[in-house]
């Protein structure tokens, strides 16, 4: 039976990327050595690293006054790396769910945190709008896509202070204006690579604003000055990331990926809105294209377990909602094919027919 992978992360990767990675594990680039056991100091891997940076820059149209580096530790490590480097006195955070709450907790070790806006009053089911941004902030921080609740920023924020964004789960899913950001970072295990590596895109002027003396590995300049290789980088995830970026370019670039993502999201949201057994859980204007969350409609809650088993039997993998919110979640990242969403829609329609 064919499987359709909707896992929230680690997530689906393109078949061509998996095939390239599998071959490289046996023989990397004709060296006769496995990718898993090569030295990161070899010219062959330095080429992979440089390719990954250049493709990132090309696909996202990153200006020349930004640096890109890759580092282990996951996005959760960046929750404290960011304030350690850039929070001098006060930073502003937009609280849109679990991941920003975790980032706020870490930031409080380094200075004052002002929550400038929050959607907690409605269980993070919308994106806050129309709030003031204080001009005395060291930076404004937000999470661009909220995997647990299924909300997403659709536009870049205009801000009088530097903007720092966690884009772990929607990086390279839509065009953005990088010049509006001081720092963009994220874990790669949603849209780019297996778990184990994070990307950081940092504007040059921020490198002069490190707020305090720091341990070497915590200082952003360490990783920029050493081109991601102060210590041994996550070789295998970086290779897969490079292959994923190559795949994106071959598919036609970011605009093509964006249009495909919008098509998938519309298809599934249209079915959620049409189907009498399901309903969405987030404000329509803030619905995420990456993590599509839904529950049984009012009066049909008792069917949830039955639908889960029904969907599993038809090859749907990873559609159980996060434990904090329940329900269902279909993560439709870049490599999730349109055919997978079509199969899930057909599954929902068949289930509705059974219960008419």
Outline:
By secondary structure, the chain is an alpha/beta fold. Helices cover 35% and strands 17% of the residues. The mean pLDDT is 97.
Layout of secondary structure:
Elements: E1 4-5, H1 15-26, H2 43-60, E2 66-71, H3 74-86, E3 90-95, H4 98-107, E4 112-118, E5 140-143, E6 145-146, E7 151-152, E8 163-166, E9 183-187, E10 198-203, H5 220-225, H6 235-251, H7 254-274, E11 278-280, E12 291-296, H8 304-313, E13 316-317, E14 328-331, H9 338-354
Parallel strand pairs: 1-13, 3-4, 3-5, 5-8, 8-9
Antiparallel strand pairs: 2-10, 6-7, 9-10, 11-12, 12-14
Helix pairs in contact: 1-6, 2-6, 3-4, 7-9
Structure description:
With 356 residues, the chain is an alpha/beta fold. It folds into two domains: 15-251, Aspartate Aminotransferase, domain 2 (3-Layer(aba) Sandwich); 253-354, Aspartate Aminotransferase, domain 1. The chain contains nine helices and 14 strands. The chain has helices spanning 15-26, 43-60, 74-86, 98-107, 220-225, 235-251, 254-274, 304-313, 338-354; strands at 4-5, 66-71, 90-95, 112-118, 140-143, 145-146, 151-152, 163-166, 183-187, 198-203, 278-280, 291-296, 316-317, 328-331. It has a seven-stranded mixed sheet, sandwiched between helices. β6 (145-146) and β7 form a beta hairpin. α2 crosses α6 and α7 packs parallel to α9 (338-354).
């Amino acid at each position: 039976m064919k499987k359709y992978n909707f896992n929230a992360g680690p997530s689906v990767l393109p078949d061509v990327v998996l095939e390239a990675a599998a071959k490289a594990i046996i023989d990397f680039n004709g060296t006769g050595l496995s990718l898993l056991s090569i030295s990161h100091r070899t010219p062959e891997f330095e080429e992979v690293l440089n390719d990954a940076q250049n493709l990132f820059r090309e696909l996202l149209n990153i200006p020349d006054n930004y640096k890109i580096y890759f580092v282990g530790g996951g996005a959760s490590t960046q929750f404290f790396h960011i304030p350690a480097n850039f929070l001098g006195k006060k930073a502003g955070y937009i609280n849109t769910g679990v991941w920003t709450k975790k980032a706020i907790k870490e930031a409080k070790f380094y200075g004052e945190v002002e929550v400038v806006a929050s959607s907690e009053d409605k269980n993070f089911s919308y994106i806050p709008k129309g709030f003031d941004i204080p001009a005395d902030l060291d930076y404004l921080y937000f999470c661009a896509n909220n995997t647990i609740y299924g909300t997403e920023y659709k536009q870049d924020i205009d801000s009088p202070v530097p903007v720092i964004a966690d884009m772990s789960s929607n990086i390279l899913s839509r065009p953005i204006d990088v010049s509006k950001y001081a720092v963009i970072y994220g874990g790669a295990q949603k849209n780019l690579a297996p778990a184990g590596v994070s990307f950081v895109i940092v504007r040059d002027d921020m490198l002069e604003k490190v707020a305090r003396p720091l341990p070497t590995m915590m200082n952003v300049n360490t990783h920029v000055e050493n081109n991601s290789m102060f210590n041994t980088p996550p070789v295998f995830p970086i290779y897969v990331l490079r292959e994923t970026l190559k795949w994106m370019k071959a598919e036609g670039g970011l605009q093509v990926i964006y249009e495909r993502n919008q098509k998938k999201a519309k298809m599934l949201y249209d079915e959620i809105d049409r189907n009498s057994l399901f309903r969405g859980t987030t404000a329509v204007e803030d619905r995420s294209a990456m993590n599509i969350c839904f529950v049984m409609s009012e009066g049909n809650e008792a069917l949830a377990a039955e639908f889960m088993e029904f969907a599993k039997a038809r090859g749907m993998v990873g559609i159980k909602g996060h434990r904090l919110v329940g329900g269902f979640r279909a993560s439709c990242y870049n490599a999730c094919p349109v055919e997978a969403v079509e199969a899930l829609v057909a599954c929902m329609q068949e289930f509705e027919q059974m219960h008419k």
